[in-house]
Design goal:
There is one protein chain. With about 140 residues, the chain is mostly helical. The chain folds into 2 domains: about 40 residues, no CATH class; about 80 residues. Helices cover about 60% and strands about 5% of the residues. The protein has a two-stranded antiparallel ribbon. It has a two-stranded antiparallel ribbon with strand order 3-4. Helix 2 crosses helix 3. It is flat, with a radius of gyration of 35 Å. It starts with a helix and ends with a helix. One of its GO terms (biological process) is neuron apoptotic process. This is Protein FAM162A. It is a single-pass membrane protein. Its main location: membrane.
Length: about 140
């Protein structure tokens, strides 16, 4: 606990130090404009030259397994397994997995709510039965 406090104090003092340095590099001029003092000469910036060659960014592709094909179908990306191409991008596969994950979580939420309602109904039935049994036992003892 003490080391965490010391770490927090050290981090705070470091940020105050950085903040002080940042404000010392700014000074107010007579026109009350902020001017940055950075120690570099003020040469006009030359326009960057366009690259002479272009890079071909290819998205890495992945051959889906049978399970991943089922996930792609369940997520609604494709209607049939025949429509799925030989290779798919990882982004498409991740999006399909996330969609299926969300659908499964919705089903789990619905099952949890249905289970809670069922347990409340069963509990009320059990409470009525126990009250009936206790009244019968009391009548026996009185007779």
């Amino acid at each position: 606990m003490g080391s965490l406090r010391g770490l927090r104090l050290a981090a705070g003092s470091y940020f105050r130090f950085c903040e002080r340095d940042a404000f010392s590099s700014l000074r107010l001029t007579r026109n009350s404009d902020l001017k940055r003092i950075n120690g570099f000469c003020n040469k006009p910036q030359e326009s960057p030259k366009p690259p002479t060659h272009t890079y071909g960014h290819r998205v890495p592709l992945h051959k889906p397994t049978d399970w991943e094909k089922k996930i792609l179908i369940w997520s609604g990306r494709f209607k049939k397994e025949d429509e799925i191409p030989e290779t798919v991008s990882f982004e498409m596969l991740d999006a399909a997995k996330n969609k299926v994950r969300v659908k499964i979580s919705y089903v789990m939420i619905a099952l949890t709510v249905a289970g809670c309602v069922l347990m409340v109904i069963e509990g009320k039935k059990a409470a009525k039965e126990t009250s009936l049994l206790t009244s019968l036992k009391l009548e026996r003892k009185l007779v």
